[in-house]
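The records we work with from here on pair a chain with its fold. Here is one such record, which you should read through line by line:
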Amino acid sequence: MESNQIVKVLQAAVKKGDPFAHGALAFMYFNGKEVEKDEKKSNDLLIKGAALGDPECQFTLGCQYFGGRRGFAQDEAKAYDLFTKAVAQGHIKAAHNLALCFDQGRGVDQDFTRAAEMYYKAAENGVAESMFGLGVCYEKGRGMLADTQKARDWYKKAADKGLDAAVKKLETLG
């Protein structure tokens, strides 16, 4: 299928309320792929896709609110809500971001136990940054009992995935 046809198919699917099509088209407008770059159209599609329940739209929109990017005012409570919805649908990167919300008390009360749970969920699914976060939880006893060996194990897993911060942490732990 030619790219022009793909855009038409996605636009038709958007008109029918397809949540995935909203996200796909939002990505295209944001990056100027096969369509003229248009951040406003991209943002509108993200908002509608998230409201329709697309987990990728919820995650992406949550990221925009979390950092106050792409024309969205920073709103950590909205970000937390969107990440929670995406996690409920199995979005693993959203689990990492939800861990950050709990860990740092951003958009929600700080809760190290919940942070550790979310880091674990994402780490078990291959997110290197969550492996590192879980290592910190074990090292510092945040949300769980401190366990230096488990901290090293998670730092090692993150380092094996190429996360420089984990490599440095392992060097400092000796």
